Amino acid sequence: MSQVVTRFAPSPTGRLHVGNIRTALHNWLLAKQAGGRFLLRIDDTDAARSREEHVESIRADLAWLGLHPDGEERQSARFAIYEEAFERLAAQGRVYRAYETAQELELKRKVLLGRGLPPIYDRSALALTEADHAAKAAAGEMPHWRFKLDHDTPITWDDGIRGPQHFDPRQMSDPVVRRADGSWLYMLPSAIDDVAMGVTDVLRGEDHVSNTATQVQMFAALGAQPPRFAHEALLTGAEGKLSKRLGSLGVADLREAGIEPEALVALLARLGTADPVDATLDADQLAASFDLSRFGRAPARFDEAELQRVNAAIVHRLPFERVSPLLPEGMGEAAWEAIRPNLAHVAEAAEWWSVVQGPIAAPAQDAETATFLQHAAQVAAALDWQAAPWAALTAALKDATGRKGKALFLPLRQALTGMDHGPDMNALLPLIAQDEAVRRLSSN
Ligand code: GLU
Q: Residue 327 carries which DSSP code?
């Protein structure tokens, strides 16, 4: 069997949002899992709507997510290839010229619908003779081009998610593939590219199912085997429909909200399955367990609260090397490891680092507790700070004062950090300089 090749084919008309990030990720996982190749194909045939800044942001977003393509192609560099394939289809009579305006087509649709018939293009342009075409050309009328579906060959494919699919080409309009100005619609160049680039698996949203039905015949007309197809259910928000905000939620917004790429990858890798999210940093592990047959046909719910939970689980695992550029100056590995279990977002590390460094504002204590803390300061001053000072401090104070549990730990934590909760003091206290800790304990 040939090597698996997948592609992510965004049109650079905007930034990537959660939905197309998921499509990119799933294509990447599918390729990784099979030891295959993942291509980035920039669908920029529409020069008016495509922007270079979007191409760059798509590349940057994929890089941030760690989805490095094994190759990049641009449709705008491939017009000669489309032209050549188009000539062949024209020679075979698989594309034909038509002249109906949008208004004329709309009228035909209305008439058919009014009669209770499906609004299928009536192919009247097929009846035009060469003399008719010459007359149109002489009158300055330029044709657009339709792909002629083969009415005698039923369209079928076994969809990787939706199962066996059947379409009757007689119930479909011949799709327009090229506009009167010579520009391309998405469908034919995409099929030509999938053949030329050896794409074996096309995984995309279910909004493309009807495109696939016509493209299956395009592959055949191009003399090629169609790739395997799989169409994923679209995303919805927690409340049903994908909200406008969610629909446009992009990498920049997620970054700003403190979401780590590993969290987005872990969540989106499972979104659409009933399987639990695996909050792993290891994308190869996600690839190994990626399984299209686990995806259902029901819309997949994207829940921002769940993303936040996965993010926290990921942050708790991030190694120091990965986050060090994001941490405050001077914050080292021991500090990161002490603090990370308390974080929902990496940026909160700065708050705990300022607790370590001080100054802090500790709550006022009653007279008895203040005396206890003065005692604690004396014990702390005499400790070996290199040897588990929190355990030594609390053991000595427990023996000397009889305090235990909350009465022992809470005033110490409050005096040392200014907070009631926080990182494990065993890990946190050694980060606070000894003389600073003594000062905090005695400043009551
Ligand atoms: N450029 C198309 C889109 O963004 C590609 C669809 C596809 O073939 O995957 O919808």
A: S
- Distance CA(328)–CA(8), nearest Å, equals 37
Rounded distance, CA 139 to CA 154, Å? 39
The residue ranges of every structural domain in the chain are 5-74+185-234, 81-178, 320-357, 367-442
Least Cα distance to 352 among 288, 286, 273, 428 occurs for 428
Does this chain's domain 5-74+185-234 share its CATH topology with 81-178? no
| CB of 237 closer than 6 angstroms to any ligand 1 atom | no
Q: What are 379's two structure tokens? A: 């014990």
Task: Report which protein residue has its CA nearest ligand 1's atom 10.
Answer: 10
Any idea which fold 81-178 has?
Glutamyl-tRNA Synthetase; domain 3 (3.90.800)
Which of 7, 11, 40, 216 for mutating ligand 1's site (highest number of atoms within 8 Å of CB)? 11
Residue type, 425: M
Question: Could you report the per-residue pLDDT of 191-231, keeping only the tens digit for each?
Answer: 999 999 999 999 999 999 999 999 999 999 999 999 999 99
Fold category of 5-74+185-234 in CATH: Rossmann fold (3.40.50)
pLDDT at 78: 98
Which of 68, 36, 78 is CA-nearest to residue 200?
36
Output the pTM of the full model: 0.92
d(CA 187, CA 75): 12
76 secondary structure, DSSP code: G
Q: What dihedral do alpha carbons 428, 433, 439, 441 form, nearest 10°?
A: 20
Are 345 and 354 contacting, i.e. CB atoms less than 8 angstroms apart? no
CA atoms within 13 A on the CB side of 61: 29
Ligand 1, atom 4, lies closest to the CA of 10
State the Cα–Cα distance between residues 127 and 65, nearest whole angstrom: 53
CA of residue 168 to ligand 1 center, whole Å: 23
